[in-house]
Task: structure prediction
Amino acid sequence: MTKPTPGDLTKRQQDAATAPETAEASAATQVPAAPERATEEPEPRSEEAKRYRLRLREAEAERDALRERLETMQRAEVERTANLEHPEAVWIGAEFDAFLDGDGNIDAERIAAHVATLGEKYGIQQRKPKIPRIGFILDQSGRPDTYDRPASGNVFDRMAESLSFGV
Result:
């Protein structure tokens, strides 16, 4: 065994002197155990708080689902407004938030500017507009013209044959 040096004695004395203080401090910081209740029933206020917490969680889940649904619809609207041959190309070099204004609405001008940039940089072109057919368009002979005319025979005759009316 080695003899204790004077520095060791003072260190031990300091440790011994502070030990009761730390024990008292730790005892003061310990939370006393809650007394057990005589009844098993929870308090009415805690049940009410539990219901409110449950409703809050349900409302937050619904809010998150609606937010996701709105973003999906807005993304589809951005792609539709861009009118590109490949709609997903609108996301090249841009994030979703870049197409929203300060109120969170879709800004068609921002989309148009981005589409113009895509055309310049990458040669991505917009789709040619489709002309809706309302009614009939007459051909040179004055008969109704259909874009998808069969190669031979009258459309109505073929329909009647397929329905077994016989013509």
About this structure: Residues 46-122 form one domain. The radius of gyration is 40 Å.
